[in-house]
Hints:
A hairpin with a 6-residue loop joins β4 (33-39) and β5 (46-51). The protein has one helix at 104-108; strands spanning 2-7, 10-13, 18-26, 33-39, 46-51, 59-60, 68-73, 78-83, 92-99, 114-115, 119-124. By secondary structure, the chain is mostly beta strands.
Amino acid sequence: xxQLVESGGGLVQAGGSLRLSCAASGDSFGVxxxxxxxxxPGMNRQFVAGIPRSGxxxxxxxxxKGRVTVSRDIGKNTIYLQMNSLKPEDTAVYYCAAAxxxxxxxxxxxxIEYWGxxxxxxxxx
Length: 125
């Protein structure tokens, strides 16, 4: 069992930055591939970024590429989503996800075992 707790969301003006954190507790953090998803009102949940359990070759969705980086700190059992040059269309609830799989593609295919509760990001124009 893994518990995921996101933090770092908030209200920011367009062009600003936020860093989201997802702290994991419970099972061994190192076996999990982790990802970030977001869901805007009335929209489906969308993949944003992911990092495999190896920590190598993070995957960033094209919609945010160039503005977002994802990283993980094994010692802190935490992953981060650094978002820069934020746009109003980035407004959504951001969710952390985890699965005991080897690559991010498996998260994209829905093989997710755990979700966090989400953190709201609101970007004003």
